[in-house]
Amino acid sequence: MILRGMDVKDLTAPNLNFHDMSPGGYGYDKVANAVELDIINGSNGYFKPWETVTRAQMAAILSRAYDLEGNTNSNFTDVNENHWAYSNIQALVANKITTGYSDQTFRPNAFIQRQHFSLFLERNFNDFFKPGSPGPSPDPDPEPEQKVNFVGTIKDDKGELISGAEIQLYDENNDIVAEAITIGNGEFIILVESGEYSLSVTHENYEAYELQELTVNADAENEVNITLQSTQVSFEYLELNQPYVSGDNGMTVELNSLEKIDQGGFYEYIFNYTETNHTKDVIPQGAFKLYFQNEEPVPQYGFFNDLYPGESATREYRFKVLKSSEPYCLEYGGNLFFKEEPTAEILKWEIS
Q1: DSSP code, position 124
Q2: Residues with Cβ < 8 Å from 91, sequence gap 6 or more?
């Protein structure tokens, strides 16, 4: 809306490099334009597009967007000269865009309400709405209830952030009052009124999590850090350059090397292996299969030739994997074609 008021057309803005916004995503072009014009900026590599805006932040945005300047003798009891947005708030007062509240406060940390945002813009564009005109004068007092930002993180038992979880908040009657908005890999935000709640987290690869008592307070930082326990079987992964006998087909297998190469749009996993038949029988060569987090496994790979007693064969194979995929296990066996997930009795190596 501010960009429209400035009659700004889409600019050729640089890549934002925000972890929580991607080119082509909702609002990306508008945010890029505003950043290019130095109206807004991010924080520590994040823009936090789903967070609410405070009155102080809005003062900074408006004063930057419309080059507002000025000083007044207004003395808000909650904004002193050391406040980061002091000059921005002074500029809004000097240009009769805000008057503050009747109790001599500006309430810089209060979330900007739609009525205030609309009034600030109208006062900037139309003198009719400025104090002293026939239009409205003081900033309207806020509604009794203000919604509060409640933020959190979801990690596994290794401390790594987890994406793809479903987070829901329940009131005292066990009714769903809000669903979380994911703002990053394993980070979420919920906008609710102050009160007592319970919270649940579900994920297809982790045990369900419930927090029965959760207090959300408008006067405090509301944050919770959640750790989920994996439901996947914990495997004992094998080492490189060590021979192992497959209990599946009796073949001795050694993974000589496993390399990951960045090919630009994808990763290429290259592995070199040796199969040796130390038995007295003719054994068909086995196959490899690559497993992913939250995705179907890559079909098995193998040559399926017979190896005679004492015979060896060394091969190399390359898996091409999208960067958005998360491979975690390479498995060897006699026939892996119909397997959907790795099992403990089969030889396997960890992929990282």
Answers
A1: H
A2: 59, 63, 68, 69, 70
Task: Tell me how far apart the terminal alpha carbons of the chain are, to the nearest angstrom.
Answer: 45
Express each pLDDT in 182-201 by its tens digit. 545 677 777 777 888 888 88
Q: Tokens 């190399």, residue? A: 316
For domain 147-228, give the CATH number: 2.60.40.1120
- Are 97 and 120 a contacting pair, CB within 8 Å? yes
Residue 65: enclosing H or E segment and its boundaries?
helix 55-65
> Are the C-beta atoms of residues 123 and 129 closer than 8 Å to each other?
yes
Nearest to 267 by CA among 318, 316, 321: 321
> How far is it, in rounded angstroms, from Cα 112 to Cα 19?
25
Rounded to 5°, the CA angle 238-239-244 comes to: 65
Note if the pTM is more than 0.70: no
Find tokens 């060896």 and name the residue. Answer: 312
Burial class of residue 271, CB neighbours in 10 A (0-12, 13-18, 19+): buried
For 104, residues 6+ apart whose C-beta sits below 8 A from its C-beta are: 75, 76, 77
CATH number among 3.40.50, 1.10.3470, 2.60.40, 3.30.70, domain 243-350: 2.60.40
In tens, the pLDDT along 282-293 reads 999 888 888 887
Tokens of 293: 């987090």
pLDDT at 259: 92
Element housing 168 (H / E): strand 166-170
